[in-house]
Amino acid sequence: MIGGVSWPELARLAQAHLFLSGCAVLAAVLIGLPVAILAAHDRRVRAPLLGIISLLQTIPGLALLALFYPLLLFLARATGWPIPALGFLPALLALGIYALLPVVRNGVAAIQGIEPVLVEAAHGLGMSRWQRLRLVELPLGAPVILAGIRTAAVWTIGTATLATTIGQSSLGDLIFSGLQTEDWQRVLVGCVAAAALAILVDAMLALVETGIAGRSRRRLGAGLAILIAALAMTLAPVSDGRASTGRLVVIGAKNFSEQYILAQLIEERLRAAGYRTQRRDNLGSAIAYRALAAGDIGVYVDYAGTLWANVLRRTDTPDGDTMLKALAQELERRDKVRVLGPLGFENAYAFAMIRARAQALEITTLDDLARIAPRLRLGTDLEFLNRPEWQAVEEHYHPVFRAMRPYSPTFMYRALADGAVDVISAFSSDGRIVALDLVTLDDPRGALPRYDALLLLNGGAADDPRLVAALQPLIGAISIERMRGANWMVDRDENKRTPAQAAQWLSGEIDRTR
Amino acid sequence: MIDFAHVSKRYDGRPVLDDVSLSIAAGSFVALVGASGAGKTTLLKAVNRLIEVDQGMVAVNGRDVADQPAVRLRRQIGYVFQGVGLFPHMTVAQNIWLVPRLAGMAAAGRAQRVADLLAMVSLPEELAGRYPHQLSGGQAQRVGFARALAAGPSIMLMDEPFGALDPVTRGDVGPAYRALHDQMGLTSLLVTHDMAEALILADRVIVLGAGRILADMPPRALLRARGEPTINAMIDAARASAARLEALAREA
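YS: structure for the whole thing
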């Protein structure tokens, strides 16, 4: 164990990270070098080509990765080929494009930087174009070309941490999950491991570079041998002691603690039933459902209101049971997605106050709140005031607050605790509601939509009765108190637990009461 | 044998060769002299198609060079220039053997051929394994000559080959090449801005100015003739420095 990360987990992530980065750099070199050679010799190609590649470079790495998801999804639909839109392929494409710029730019500079007298000699002695390339341009340009490959390798290893967001395992798994659960040790382990990998690879490439520059076959050979050995090692399977022969089920999770805990819980249940499992954590909110519908993941947890508004694009707010029924029918019909059932708690927007203060002001409902709102200050997360939920609250209750202040979630709770605001837009399953002794206000007019946590299966998983039976015990078994408790174990600063430990606790609670 | 028939070349509208016709006999040593921009290098490079002419025809051994693949043409013609252009990542031997290698000649007897070529340019055999940065300027230019001669060309094109050498080495390498020229029966075309060098080495001196031939005669005839003021000035300058040297030598 190091920083709460087990060695096999670290080894597995480092291996996946190195394999992805290695493939991306290799692809960039295989494509970029010929392109650079072409561009170095042809002025008409050079300017537009370098322009396009520089432009691609300005797209933020995260956006580039995210853009490949819809693009590949579209390609898969248009061609009918089984192109995976999540995981390795989009990560490889995005990182490969990213690595292209230093390879091409240095390649062009290397060939253009060859001394004019040598170019004249090459022409004057009667070298063909291919001979010029093989005998003069490549050997003399090698140090500059290699410097470009080194830059590409370091960039790629750094950027590959973002591959986590599109469901490709990398050292970014540690960084992203650590960030969400505020487990800084985990973040640090991920960062240090990625940096160490980058430094090691760079050092090996430096060895190759000095080997070429100094015409030392020994250095060149040593550097290349170590790099090739490292890449070969990434192909060897790392045993994590969980080898099993059952069917593979891919479990998705969005990027917050509750999702990690629930995904872990689902994973444990499926393993116990003999399935092989794989995780796709930190999926973007919009990507997760589409990944399920496309079959890239088999099971995950989403929330009724999110599906209603974002997937079905509905703007009305029917009562809870009507919404759940309509959701189940519509998702089944449209995407063959099965709603196995609600887990038993909601992760909804809820107005929350310190219990003592709410009692002193005699506030229990949003009606009460609206009445004395002009004396109160509202704290919200960064997006709440722009969301339809807030519009609905305004329409139904017409509250006018003395002040409204948006915060990032952590600071929003702190502001409430410190008395900087009087009421906040909390999430109902947040562990801090219990920890800070908050009350959530009732919504008698039904302005806020239901956000029941629903267990969703794609068509393939839903048709497997053994799988359904393994997950069925979770339906209706997780009360709001239990979920808050589990979330708090992970989110608190002291005596912090990992999502796996929280899931284990939750699992015990479920079994205890069955 | 090299023939130029009505050859013209312009750069950005400015003529550098203006309807030049000229015939160079096999076995002759011809120097092209003139101020910079006179067109001498352009004329030289038109022979192995490093420069393509706009109008007229250049023929080598009776064949229009434009009809021959440039790469093969260049391998048949020796080329030496001021920058030398030895490849820094190749040994002396690899540099010398480059043209035979480009042409796909068998490597058998390579070491002996390289040793012979080094001997031909008066360099010791042990230089074969060295890299260019380990050579002096004079040695490097001699290797340049050996490289140009390696595939056994009958024609040698030389663009200011002694320009970057110090005067002592220069006075050494020039006559050494002239001896090779005679011994191997080469046809040599030498571009130089040094009239004295042209007069001493060549059989025939062609003076160019603004893309035209101003004079074309053997060295002795050129020294006697009085013509264009520019030619007179060039010859007078060469003579004056020789005279000053001689006067100085008498005083000593």
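YS: worth flagging: Confidence is low (pLDDT under 50) at residues 239-244 of chain A.
IM: good catch. Also Chain A touches chain B at residues 116-118, 120-128, 131, 135-136, 139-140, 215 (CB under 8 Å).
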